[in-house]
Amino acid sequence: MLIVNSPVKEIKEIQKDIFLQKIYSPVIAKQIKPGQFLNIRVSETVSPLLRRPFSICDVDGDYIFLMFNIFGEGTKILSHKHIDDTVDILGPLGNGFNLTNDFDTAIIVAGGLGSAPFPFLTRLLKDKFDIYSFVGGRSKNDVITYNLLNVQTATDDGSLGFNGNVVQLFEKNLPSFKSKKIKVFGCGPNAMLRALKEVCIAHNINCEVSTECAMACGFGICQGCPIEATEQSDKYLLVCKDGPVFNVKDVII
Amino acid sequence: MSNIDLSVTIASLKLRNPIMLASGTVGYGNEIAEFIDLNKIGAIVTKSLSLKPRKGNAPQRITETPAGMLNAIGLANVGVEVFLKEKIPFLKKYDVPLICNIAASSVEEYVECTRMLNEEETIKAFEINVSCPNVKDGGLQFGNNLTAVGKVTEKVRAVTNKPLIIKLSPNVSYIHEFAQVVKDSGGDAVSAINTLVGTAFNIFTRRPKIQNVFAGLSGPAIKPIALAKVLEIHQKVDIPIIGIGGIMNWKDVVEFIIVGASAVQIGTLNFIDPTAPIKILKDLENYCKQMKINSVSELTGSYII
Question: Which positions carry the signal peptide feature in this UniProt record (chain A) (predicted)?
């Protein structure tokens, strides 16, 4: 966990309103596990005041890649950075996905910007595992397939791929997977993650999801990002520190 | 080696410098210790402790506002017993005064928490939170009632000889009246201020952005209010004041001290830059050198009106 002022080296719009930013930060880059995040201070002024959490989209050597859309003031400022402008990054934060040896087939299920953490996961897994990606969005412009493999798409309005939601598409395709050692990696809106959890539990499939919650610090001191554990507990888990990746069996989404 | 004396004294509490870390913004010290050397800090104020563990409020607990943030964490904490057993051993490794902040739902609970913590020699003082706006029981209902603040102070005073600081609410008309009650009831100092009551709504869903609806506003947005409250207390009551509210840099620290604070607490800034308290210390020392101030305590209440 470090705070490093790091220069932006490239920024491009990979599809309409979706930006990919390349940041040079060798010390942080070498520590990152897929599924971890950064908390970024986009400006030295007091507005916006707080850091903004971002999934780490990819890591390549000394470079970190972030994927984002313009959601509010923070992402607007970030999208306007010039080459060699610096961003103040705190990270890597959170636990990341568990890449154990108990699966041979990785299935990615992503909704909208939920695709953000998966290019790095794909990069790390592609040589050893079979990877299939199910990617959804409300409409075709919301479907982000950047650097994913074996992609099938779903849209709520039917403008691209399967007409329906991405979890329905995943469930429909489940019989086609021959392997018994499947692991699902999910990220997207909470409603999507809830549906994914139901399907995975019903079919007894190991599933980890990356969750999100408003937070201030990103490392456990503000206590702003609680998530309820499935086991009765006298405390909440924290998305920033205990997550953002959880096994779906462990949390109430 | 600097010849600037940064040490300050609040009642019998001696601090190596006036920079304290505010309750609720440093947990129990372990997370922030990854970023700064706690031995260089004036004091740490723990997260509010209650007798039994508190789970806190359901999400969403935090939202940003212009130059500020709203939080309704709801005093999530491990409870006094777990604190003594599991959190104190880590804090004992550091040579930094530990101040326990206590929050409760009744006078009896304040007293019982203090009594249980009083035996622990690592704990150098108590800060009694009578002003949290985010809990249904206790909290602000004590903080805006003069009689209740007096009673809590008096009853807690009876079970400890350690310095007793009462953290005051700004959500009152005349904060100096509360400081006076604290003094008259045996309190040693006051912290000013706790968060202001605020709220925020989503204009599209018409729903509150914070699940608890009402929340505590902190950050630079509240600094002018906090300064005014510290000044009001300083002008009316002879009691040490710990200034809190939106400190973002050394200049803010100096401003709080000039209007009457003996020490300050850094809060929301810890979330944004956990290394900031150490940077502030260095800058504060440079300011003293530049202004030919030998002891930072000379600055307290040195305003010219």
Answer: none
